[in-house]
Amino acid sequence: MPRTADHDERRRQVAEALLRAIARKGLAKTTFADVADELGASVGLVQRYFRSKDDLLRFGVEHLYKRGEERIAAVERTLPVRDLLFRAARTLLPLDEERRRELTVWLEFLPATVHDPEMAELHRSATHELIDGLTEGLAAAQRHGELPLGLDPRAEALALVAFVDGLTIHRLATADLFDDATAERSLRQYFTRLFSDPEGLDPTHPQTEEN
């Protein structure tokens, strides 16, 4: 068991080194030697865990998505649902250096999903899981009377993911217009419009006031 734990921890460290190297140099220019330098180890050690650059990159993507899942899982599950969903969506925004670095790497990885079936499947799987979770959350908001029963939770989940993706890209590429405060405010305004006393709310459910 300890040996397995050490192996997993070393793979995680290599993945972290990969993300730092890609954020610094870009995907195309990153080599095993760059990852080894970031790790403070030998190229041979990196290759001990990953036989090819493709293997290393796929593991890096898995690690990246796992981080995002862990942040969402750590969100406090308290009502109202609106606030819970906002907190979950906020974890996707690059509001600190770590998440900005991850976004830089994600943008480097994304084109690979067009031609690499395994990378594409990783992206599809992670995106489906995110959308499924948001769909469940929006359906829960309906059950609590926070959203109209006629609303399509999955359609709104898709729209929310598309909005957040656009917001994150602008936060990185157009930072003079989308600083941290603006990005967070834009997300909050999105939720305000989505949850703003629309027609069709179930009158049998009490409404919650915005914090």
Explain what you see:
This is AcrR family transcriptional regulator. This protein is an all-alpha fold and 211 residues long. It has 2 domains: 51 residues, Arc Repressor Mutant, subunit A, CATH 1.10.10.60; 142 residues, Tetracycline Repressor, domain 2. The protein has 10 helices and no strands. The protein is elongated. The termini are far apart.
Keyphrases for this structure?
mainly alpha; Arc Repressor Mutant, subunit A; Tetracycline Repressor, domain 2; 2 domains; 10 helices; 71% helix; elongated; repressor; Tet_transcr_reg_TetR-rel_C_sf; Homeodomain-like_sf
How do the strands and helices of this protein lay out in sequence?
Blueprint: H1 2-25, H2 32-39, H3 43-49, H4 53-73, H5 81-90, H6 97-109, H7 112-115, H8 117-143, H9 153-173, H10 180-194
Helix pairs in contact: 1-2, 1-4, 1-6, 2-3, 4-8, 5-8, 5-10, 8-9, 9-10
In the CATH hierarchy, the architecture of the largest domain is: Orthogonal Bundle
CATH superfamily of the largest domain: Tetracycline Repressor, domain 2
| Low-pLDDT windows of residues | 198-211
Q: Give the topology string: H per helix, E per strand.
A: HHHHHHHHHH
Alpha-carbon distance between the two ends: 47 Å
Q: Would you state the CATH class of the largest domain?
A: Mainly Alpha
Radius of gyration over all CA atoms, rounded: 20 Å
CATH topology of the largest domain: Tetracycline Repressor, domain 2
Mean of the pLDDT scores?
88
Strand content: under 5%
Helical percent range?
over 70%
Number of H- or I-type helical stretches: 10
Morphology call: elongated
The biggest sheet amounts to:
none
Structural class: mainly alpha
